[in-house]
Amino acid sequence: MKEIISYGRFHCAELLPHKNQGMEITYIDKGMMEWMVEGKPEKVEGGTVFFTLPWQVHGSLHPNEPDNTLWHVLFHLENDYPTPRDTFRFPKTFGFSPAEMKILSTAFASSNRHCLRATPAMRELMPSLVGELQSTHELRDAQAITLLRAVIVELKRIISGDAVDAETHTTSERRVQSLIDSLSSSIDQQWTLESMAGQCGIKRTQLNKVFQKLTGGTPMEYLWRIRMERAKTLLRETDVKIIDIAFECGYGSSQYFSNSFKQATGATPSAYRKRCSGLSPAESRNWKNIQFRSEEEERLRAKVFSIEKK
């Protein structure tokens, strides 16, 4: 399909600032990352969908990001649109009418947020779209266009608040979700699988299964990710001593914390604090002056980060 620039299921090890020659939609299946769009940070985590438009510079200031898996598609619009637009047009092959394109593009161009909670429909659509693009049957393109249209419309509904995650949960899932909601305020506790399972009133095997469904990772992986998220916020936004941050995030020593933090980000806590306190004037200018990444570069990155579908 000539409209598609890149697609796939990825592990994205780094996201240097860049602009794409098209619209990007990414469903984050697993992970917890900090990306920026036009210099403004947005938290990107498992169960969310992220999008950018051609003129929007996006990326990360971090050397690398925690373990993650993403379902990604990047596709051409009618033009490259190097400067901001209130409305824009999709390729004619997508089959949207002028009125529909105006509704869709206005919602995308006016959105102040680029990362939103994915609905059950979006969680199904993105893997299905990537799977179809990876297939070779004779009606692949027709089916892929149908799925991509559905992804675009569902994204608009999410942005507008017309589509919400109304998925019902079992009793075990509700208990685990309650634990997930409370973990951020109790990361200093010495949580174990046994204590988490006891908190939810279920067995450890069931706890693991439900956590995988709700967060894309195990309980301890999720705890590690939110501890790193809290640590990065404290390092970036406060002058709290590193040893105190370690204790606040549930680590018994500054060395153990430093090793875990470097594993997550590729930098020591002190180096991260120095590097990520904010964009310097020079960095801000660089972000604004970044040129489009070529299609060849984008496809090479897709190949490097691709996770073969099992």
Please name the defining characteristics of this protein.
single chain, 310 residues, alpha+beta, Jelly Rolls, HTH-type transcriptional activator RhaS, five-stranded antiparallel β-sheet, three-stranded antiparallel β-sheet, transcription, Arc Repressor Mutant, subunit A, transcription regulation, HTH_AraC, DNA-binding transcription factor activity
Walk me through what this model shows.
Helices cover 47% and strands 14% of the residues. The protein is of the alpha+beta class and 310 residues long. The chain has two domains: 183 residues, Regulatory protein AraC (Jelly Rolls, Sandwich), CATH 2.60.120.280; 105 residues, Arc Repressor Mutant, subunit A, CATH 1.10.10. The strands form two sheets. It has a five-stranded antiparallel β-sheet. Strand 3 and strand 4 form a beta hairpin. Helix 2 runs antiparallel to helix 3 and helix 4 packs across helix 6. The longest helix is centred in the middle third of the chain and has 21 residues. One of its GO terms (molecular function) is DNA-binding transcription factor activity. Keywords: DNA-binding, Transcription, Transcription regulation. It comes from Pontiella sulfatireligans.
